[in-house]
Structures are given as structure tokens and as C-alpha cells.
Amino acid sequence: MTGAPGTRRRYAVIVVGSGISGLFVALEARRLGPVLVLTKGSIDDCNTRWAQGGIAAAVGPLDSPEQHLADTIAAGAGLVDEEAARILCYEAPARIRDLVRYGVSFDSLGGEVALGREAAHSRARVLHAGGDRTGAEIETALSAAAMDPAITILDHTLVTRLAVEEGEAHGVEAVHLQTGEREWYEGDAIVLGTGGAGQLFSHTTNPEVATGDGVALAFDAGAEIADIEFYQFHPTALRVPGLPTFLISEAVRGEGAVLRNLAGEAFMQRYHPLADLAPRDVVSRAIVREMRREGSDHVYLDCTGLKSVDLAARFPAIFAHCMEAGIDMRVDPIPVAPAAHYLMGGVRTDTWGRTTVARLYACGECACTGVHGANRLASNSLMETVVFGKRVVEHLAAGGGGAAPATPDRIPFPAPATAAPSHRELQAMMWECAGIERDGPGLERGLRTIAGWPARLAAVCTREEFERQQMTTVAALMLTAALRRTESRGGHYRSDYPERDDAHWRRRQVFIRA
């Protein structure tokens, strides 16, 4: 950290982000020494608290990790890293026990844990807490457990740079947003747990903090970025004029709700044998096609036939939100449309969470373990954070060190010299050019748009300015990766190359800063 001013203190582990991945790592790592958690919002301002459906683990009597693995691989459209997926599925039950130890109370029925079923799962294996408030329940429990003398949490603190010397990460530069003070923090290890990048798009289920910061920070620091073209659009987000996007959990369809077009037709059986429980990419594209055919901006999710389900009790947050919008889901169909939801790609890691920069780790949505392939299996995301967060700390406890091996055929990519004039302009461009359905001319238009934006600021002064620059980096990576991949697979669909091409494209794209 040559030239770093006024370092305060050295920490065993510095964690960037306060969602489930960041807090879980902090709790597990406190036995290694002092831990610092830095988060640009408040401690609970993260994707985790919005996760409704639940967390997947093979804990039911009719289930097995092997079956969970088979479903994960099937959903991933040929690109799942099977070693990583096997680790996820076999270690999941133990991580559920860890969450219970940290105070998470999962819903039960008749003395047994209640298990829901979601799209592309062959068994009911999704645990939930507080009905549809699973993410919020986990975040609340972990936040309370993190009030520990060994863990220092600094909120409203924006990490603007990773300090790397001779291929090793040594610390972070951060700005305290409420005072403008800039500070450096040294750490024996840096762990990125910054979440996703849904704010790249006009319509998203993600909160305002999800701007891809961790991916851009790691890219700038020399780490590899993989699978960045694969973005999952959730099929069912509330679409009511004048109201913000709100996720309607897949678990609602798991209970038997049916998608209908404006004519009242249950259309999903025309698109996939699993109908309403088809993989998310299939359902999202089907909805887009129905909307286009009917000239509408939504379809309907019909829950009115679920007479045996107490919707207010099973889905309290969704039920309350719909009621506030004037929709009683017991008798009214819910207007829904797809929205950007989850980034399958990110900072490439090995199965211990190591990036290709020594002492820099990543876990959760900002990381790319390869476990999701081209299309994430529902409710594997929360489990991924704790499984690989645990492995990060296990690796550090065993002595840490080293970096993930570099990818032989990685693609050099220059960081964009420009930045979006505003969040809104970038979001509109990405929704149009790199949304649910893409094509070559649109992706090229997106890249030309970025090239025509103003030059980057030499010094970033505000969170908004920093986010625009980070979002522009991630957008340029995503557009480039999507343009290069001349096929359709999982969360990446190109109307000019609508078929999957295993002969040429059953491989990952990995980028490195040129």
C-alpha cells in the first residue's frame, strides 16, 4: 500500500459487504482475530433481506444431496462446475445447522421442518423462515450475532479500491460517506461479499445497493471475472404503474399458483413440460412472448385456486404488499412481469473462495464458483453464501495463502474510459440492449453508447459517482461477453442465435483487465 495515509489498525480479516455472505464470514472468522466489516449502506441494506423463497438443502426424508446435485446440474444448462456443485449440495445440511446455531428459526409443520418446492427442484427441499421473509429472518439473526467485540462494523463506509502489491491484496481504501474522510485499512485477508448487480437494469428485484461494486473492484485489482453474460431474470415481479418492482416469490407457484395471459389462458404448458415450475429463464422468456403477442406489459399470476393454502400466513410479506397495492391475492390475479434478479457470473473463485489475486477472497452473489452454471437453481443462492463462506474461513484457518490458478485462455479486456451520465440512462440502455432477449445489433449499440459517455472522473467524491463508474465497468463486461457468446444458454438468450451450441460454447468466458 505504497503512499497509503494514516492506517488505523490491522485486521485478521476485512469483509466488504453486510449481507448473509459478509456476516456469516465475519462470525466464522472472529476466532482468527479481529474482523472488520465495511458496508456502504446500513448493516441490513442488502439483497439477503429481500430473499423470499428460502434456502435449499436436502434435509427431507425423501431427498438426498445426490438428487439436489442432479437438479442443480440440470438447471445450469451444461456449464455447472460439478465439483463446486457437489460441495454445495453435500455440505448444505451442515450449514443449515450453523444458521440455526446463529439464531435462525426455520418454519416447521407438525414438529418437522417445513419444506417447499420451487421451479426445477424434483423434491420439496426449500426451507423458509417467517413464511416469505426468509432473507430478512436470516439477516436479522446474523446481524444480532455479529454484535460481538471481535467484529467491528462500519456502515455508510464505501470501499473504493483494493490495495494490491506484487499480486497480493493487503487492504482497502474506504470513504466514510457521512464525513467524507478517506481511510486505509490493512488486512491479512480481504473477503468480498458485496452481492449482485441488479441496478444495472430498469426493472429489478434488487435493492439500490446492488450495483456490482465487488465485481468491478476485483476486476480493477487484477482478478478474473467469469460467466458475466449470464443474468437471471425472475419471471414474477409485481408490475403496477407507479409502484416499485416487488418480487413475487417462486414459492407461490410452488404452492400451485398459475400464470395466465390477459385472455385467462394458462400458457406455460405450451413452453415446457414442467409448465409453471419450469426453469426461470424459460418462464421469463415465455412471459415476454405472451406480453409481446398481446401488446401488454404484464401477465397474471393466479392464486385464486389455492383454497387449501392460507396465503396471508404462508406469504405474509407478499400478501401485505399486494393488499397495499389494492390486490387481494385470494380473489384477484396479480399483474406480474420479469425483472433482473441474480448474477450467475462474477469474480472467479476456486472451491475455497480464493480469487486469482492472493489473499483476496469472494463469496456470495459477487463471486463465481461455477455452481450455478448458466442458470441458477432456485434457492441455491443463500446456501451458496454460507457453504463457500464457511470454506473461505476454513482455508484461512488452515494457513490461507496462495491464489486460485489463473485461467489459461482468459480474455484481456480494457476498463472503460467513460462512465454513465446517470443510473437511469445506464439502466435503460442495459434493459434494452442486454435484457431478457438479446441480439448482436443491440449489444453492439450498448457498447457504442458506453463509448460515447463522458470520461471518468479522476477522483470520485460521492457514492453515486462511484457507483456509476463501477456499473459502467460491469455493463461493458456483460455486453462484451454476451456479444462474444453466439448461442443461447440459460440466462443468456440471443434471438439471432436461438439454439444452444455445445460444440463451440460449452465453455466459460473469463476476462482479465488488460
Automatic annotation (TrEMBL):
Q: Which NCBIfam families does this entry report, sorted A to Z?
A: nadB, PRK07512.1
Please report the organism this UniProt entry assigns to the protein: Tepidiforma bonchosmolovskayae
GO MF annotation: an example = L-aspartate oxidase activity
Query: What family does this belong to?
Result: Belongs to the FAD-dependent oxidoreductase 2 family. NadB subfamily.
Which stretches are annotated as coiled coil?
none
Q: What is its main location?
A: cytoplasm
Known EC number(s)?
Answer: 1.4.3.16
The segment(s) forming the FAD-dependent oxidoreductase 2 FAD-binding domain are 13-382
From the broadest rank down, the organism's phylogenetic lineage runs:
Bacteria, Bacillati, Chloroflexota, Tepidiformia, Tepidiformales
Which keywords does this chain's UniProt record carry?
Answer: FAD, Flavoprotein, Oxidoreductase, Pyridine nucleotide biosynthesis
Which cofactor is recorded for it? FAD
What are the Fumarate reductase/succinate dehydrogenase flavoprotein-like C-terminal domain coordinates in residue numbering? 423-511
Stated name of the protein:
L-aspartate oxidase
